Amino acid sequence: MAYLYNFAYLVVIILASPFLIVSSIRNGKYRQGWGAKFLGLVPRSRNDKPCIWLHAVSVGEVNLLQPILTEISLKHPDWECVISTTTLTGMNLAKRKYSQYTVFYCPLDFSWAVASAFRRIKPAMLVLVELEIWPNMIRTAHKRGCPIVIANGRLSEQSFAGYRKISFLIRQTMRRITAVAAQNKDYASRFVSLGVDTSRVHITGSIKFDGAQTNRNNEATQSLMALSGLDPDVPVILAGSTQIEEETQIIQTYTELLPDHPELKLIIVPRHPERFDMVSEMLKNQSNTWIRRSEITEPLERDSWRILLVDVIGELGAWWGSADIALVGGSFGKRGGQNMIEPAAYGAAVCFGPSTRNFRDVVQQLLDAQAAVVVHDQLELTEFVRKCLENKAFSENLGTRAKSLVSEQLGATTQTIDILAKAMANSQ
Q: Which helix (H) or strand (E) element contains residue 308?
C-alpha cells in the first residue's frame, strides 16, 4: 500500500509542477526544505529525553501550539518537543515564535522520506494538530510503536465528505490513531465514522479558546491605553486583522457616525505590514485627526487623535482589550475571516462580515449563543455600530454573552495534555 501512495503523490506533484514553479518564482514559495521534504533530512535528536513531534501545517495550527507547549513545559519538563510545519509562512512564524525549539519542514508523505525522518528524530509520540491524515507517516509511527494523537481534532463537513469517498483506503490508517482530542461531538462522531475506535475519541473543546485574555486590566492593554491617551470611558471601535474591504468600510462608517458621536475613537490594525502605508494613504484623504502607532514615543494627551493606525506587529491581542465594538477583519473579502475569539473574550460587541470559513465552528458557537453579529455590507456595519452606541443594553449583553462563551470553553489544553500523557504512558 505504501508504494501505491508513493505513486499517487508523484503523479500529483508532476501534475501540479507548473503551478509550483510559478508560485516559487512569484512568491518565493516551495524553495526551501527540499532535503527535509523529499529525503526526510530533518534535524537529529540530540538527547535521551522522550521526544514529542508536533506537526502544525501552517500559521493557524502553528499558533495553536502556544498553549500546548506552555502546558507541556509546566507539567512534563522532561519531554523534548520538536515542531514541523508545511508552509513557508508557517515555518517563518514557528521559527520566530518558538525559537527555543527545533523547527523543520515536515517530510512529504513518501515512505522513504517519512522513514528517514523517524530514524533521525526518534519520536516517542507524534501529535498532529487539527487534522493531518498522511497514511505513510501514520503507518510508520504505528510500526515503530509511536503513539499518534490528533490534537484539537477538526473534521468539517466538506473534509468528512471527501474522506468518506476514499474510506476504503484510509480506514486502516484511522484505526492506527491512538487518540483523538476532538473539538466537539460532531467532529468526534465523524472520526468514529472513518474508523477511529470510539474509546479513543475524546471531546475536549477547542484549544483556540485557551490562552485568550479576558481581563481588560491586563498590563499590556493598560500600557497601550496610557501611551495613546485613551480614556476607558470613551467608546472605541477597533477593526483588527483588516484587509482593504474592512478598512474602506469602517472608515466610511466612522465618518458617518462621528457627527452624532463626536467622542467615538477608531483603531485600525491591518493584517499585513504591507498594508500599513496603504491605509495611511487612505487616512490622508479624510478630515479626521489620525496618528500612526509607530509615531507614538511618549504618552499622548487625551483627545489628541480620532483615528489610530496600529502599524506595528504583535500588539493586536492587547489592543482588543481597549475595544467596546469590534470588527474582525478578513471577513468581507475572500480571506475567510480572522480570529474573533480574542475580542469576544474581552467582552466586546463583536461583528464580522459573511466570509468566515476559516473559523466556521467558532462563528457558529458565537451565533448560537447570540454573542456576535454578521454584517453583510457597509450599511449593516454602520447600523450595527450605531445600535451599539445608542443602545448600551444591546452592546453590553452581546459582549457579556461572548465573554461567557469563551470562559465556558477554557480547559481544552489541559484535557489534551492529559490525553498525551496517557498515550505516552500506555506505550512504554
A: strand 307-309
